Amino acid sequence: MADDSRTETSSQLSSPADHGSVDSGFVSPNLSTVSLPRIALTQPHLQHLNKQLESMHPRDILRFCKIFFPSLYQSTAFGLTGLVTVDMLSKLDKESPDSQQIDLIFLDTLYHFQETYDLVERVKERYNVKVHVFKPADVETVEQFEALYGEKLYETSSDLYDWIAKVEPLQRAYSELKVAAVLTGRRRSQGGQRGSLPVIELDDERGVIKINPFANWSFAQVKDYITEHNVPYNALLDRGYKSVGDWHSTVPVAEGEDERAGRWKGQDKTECGIHNKQSRYAQWLVQQAARQQGQQVQA
């Protein structure tokens, strides 16, 4: 995968010493797992920004974000929209060489398609961009993962798998890299929970601002940009896939199906947890902690 110089190791998230204000939108119900936000926006300010950015081209949104948000990163699984983001940022870097450089955060679940790993290397070579790779804690290979958690955890306990392979590594990335704001590739046209996506939103549980520059774009617009600008993309997209995740939970999309219909086919889920308020497993952990605390008090 990524070379050692571009891989960040893991550590636990630190606890904040005090709370954010209610008006800022940064009060967290789970203060033990997040750090204080590095950017504070009032709700009226956030609404104003979203109103102004709503009609702007994604390139202009990215240009604004590079100036406005410090400690800005891009979180990506190297899907089409993420690749368009990388390409646009590369062009903006040439336009303003002294502006803030945006590194990438890639969650290596250990179960990506080989085509995805190949694409990561092609993107690094093409754009000379730094990729911070975060894997499940304390493991480097599938063999180590399965020795620790058992085979096919993604089937026997999909919520636990999502927490270990995706949610916790992303929280660790935010903490280690001191992320204040992060660019995502989410779009309203992807449907599901993303249908009413704002351009800028507060993730109060993780203490970061999430920016969705392509919220207004359709799959066709993204694909047209990829073709026009000769952006490298996942070879699986030429085999009927539209949204590519882990090999064990991704299938090609049939004609007429939603873009993300091939993710978790047959399962009652549309998100892995990293963009949810809390993953179901995280909620279970909170409930277990509360139950244990109650038992200790009674004892």
TrEMBL record:
Its EC number is 1.8.4.8. GO terms for biological process: cysteine biosynthetic process; methionine biosynthetic process; sulfate assimilation, phosphoadenylyl sulfate reduction by phosphoadenylyl-sulfate reductase (thioredoxin). Keywords: Amino-acid biosynthesis, Cysteine biosynthesis, Methionine biosynthesis, NADP, Oxidoreductase. GO terms for molecular function: phosphoadenylyl-sulfate reductase (thioredoxin) activity. This is phosphoadenylyl-sulfate reductase (thioredoxin). Residues 73-252 form the Phosphoadenosine phosphosulphate reductase domain. Belongs to the PAPS reductase family. CysH subfamily. The keyword Plastid does not apply. Pathway: Sulfur metabolism; hydrogen sulfide biosynthesis; sulfite from sulfate: step 3/3. InterPro entries: PAPS/APS_Rdtase, PAPS_reduct_dom, PAPS_reductase_CysH, Rossmann-like_a/b/a_fold. Residues 1-24 are annotated as: Disordered. GO terms for cellular component: cytoplasm. It catalyses: [thioredoxin]-disulfide + sulfite + adenosine 3',5'-bisphosphate + 2 H(+) = [thioredoxin]-dithiol + 3'-phosphoadenylyl sulfate.
